[in-house]
Amino acid sequence: MAASRIVIENCAIATVDANDTEYASGYVVVADNRIESAGGGKAPADLENVARRIDGTGQLVTPGLVNTHHHFYQWITRGLATDHNLFNWLVALYPTWARIDEPMVRAAARGSLAMMARGGVTTAMDHHYVYPQGSGDLSGAIIGAASETGVRFTLARGSMDRGKSDGGLPPDFAVESLEGALAATEATIDKHHDASFDAMTQIAVAPCSPFSVSTELLRQGAELARRKGVRLHTHGSETVEEEEFCKELFGMGPTDYFESTGWLGQDVWMAHCVHMNDSDIAAFARTGTGVAHCPSSNARLAAGIARVPDMLAAGVPVGLGVDGTASNESGELHTELRNALLINRLGSHREAALNARQALRLGTYGGAQVLGRADQIGSIEAGKLADLVLWKMDTLAHSSIADPVTALVFGAAAPVTLSLVNGKTVVEAGHLTTVDEDAIARSARDEAQRLARIAAQA
């Protein structure tokens, strides 16, 4: 059967390929779920089976944005503990988070995904690690929400086995046993992971953090991931307190501790990595370990400024993350392009820290690298999957900025004219085509209120 084609033409294009190829006016041809061609000037005139032709005048095409760290369930606990550092924020919110159930998680996931997709995210991930006893099929609810929204998705199946009685922060009923966490994670991989080139759902093994899981859960989690051929994800080096905790309990810093448990490698990525010294960065570069940079959340929780320019210079793969919406209430990734650039310029490299194209690369190709999918997504190249965003750049907000990539990164959040995932339309004229945004908003509000009532009565 002949391929059905979509042609986008007369648009600026930032391919984010290895040469940062750009076209001031060009075209992209999509055939079924793949990018068939891209170039300057007019699209080929002899194309057959063109189902849709889009005039992109005044607009910019980029690869779809790739989110590398999130906690969807936090959508229903936004706006709380707004003046807390990380530790106090966790202490304040864990008693509420421990009461989540399947309907709450489904509503929160739908809200998180809708907000990201509407803002240009075509590949999302969720690090879900709170599985209270009797709460239902939380992983299934999250995966179902992603499928409904139509985005490409990685569930980092998280876990915690260090409850309050063992010196952890969560209540004991909100953590799993070592054996239970490993078994549930393996079952999730077996049921949901798709290793194919155009997979829409993949699973990663993701114990929460050094201070909420046992050493054995980290070690056996790494063994499980490699036996199953999936990636590994966790939080790392987020705060000074985490470093002190690791040194006190294990006699070494977080990076050395992770390495001792098998948690450095090309199949691993960690969130935050704010407090990394030169040897830590060198270890990540040597092993190919990736980083999910979450600038807004790091600022919201006063965690600090990650050394992203130094990581990039050393060859560390770096992508962008929204992080949970209880520490980044906007829930959007396209704002992280701007925040990554601006916040890193407050660091030691100042104005040389990042430029607009580096920021765009973090949010696209860098994220694809971190998720292990750089040969499939993250740049506009023939043969890659058709995950694309068309940004409207001729409105009041951007029309006087000559360079469209500068306008996208430095300017206000740009409207999304069109978002394609796997060649299918997910956003059209700024609105989701796959789900009812108003219904999602109502459901999330209702579940947030129900959670608040339950937590208040506990």
Layout: helices, strands, pairs:
Layout: E1 5-14, E2 22-31, E3 34-40, E4 50-55, E5 59-63, E6 65-66, H1 86-97, H2 102-118, E7 121-128, H3 138-149, E8 152-159, H4 178-192, E9 201-207, H5 215-228, E10 231-236, H6 240-250, H7 254-260, E11 268-272, H8 278-287, E12 290-293, H9 295-300, H10 308-314, E13 318-320, H11 334-344, H12 356-370, E14 388-392, H13 404-410, E15 416-421, E16 424-428, E17 431-432, H14 437-457
Parallel strand pairs: 1-4, 1-5, 6-7, 7-8, 8-9, 9-10, 10-11, 11-12, 12-13
Antiparallel strand pairs: 1-2, 2-3, 5-14, 14-15, 15-16, 16-17
Entry keywords:
458 residues, alpha/beta, eight-stranded parallel sheet, globular
Model description:
The protein contains 14 helices and 17 strands. The chain is of the alpha/beta class and 458 residues long. Strands 1, 2, 3, 4, 5, 14, 15, 16 and 17 form a nine-stranded mixed beta sheet that branches. Strands 6-7-8-9-10-11-12-13 form an eight-stranded parallel beta sheet.
N→C terminal distance: 59 Å
Average predicted confidence as pLDDT: 96
Secondary-structure class: alpha/beta
> Biggest sheet, in brief?
9 strands, mixed
Tell me, briefly, the overall form.
globular
Record field, number of beta strands: 17
Strand content: 15-25%
> Roughly how much helix do the residues carry, as a percent range?
25-40%
The number of helical runs is 14
How big is the Rg? Answer: 21 Å
Low-pLDDT windows of residues: none
Short description:
By secondary structure, the chain is an alpha/beta fold. It contains 14 helices and 17 strands. The chain has helices at residues 86-97, 102-118, 138-149, 178-192, 215-228, 240-250, 254-260, 278-287, 295-300, 308-314, 334-344, 356-370, 404-410, 437-457; strands at 5-14, 22-31, 34-40, 50-55, 59-63, 65-66, 121-128, 152-159, 201-207, 231-236, 268-272, 290-293, 318-320, 388-392, 416-421, 424-428, 431-432.
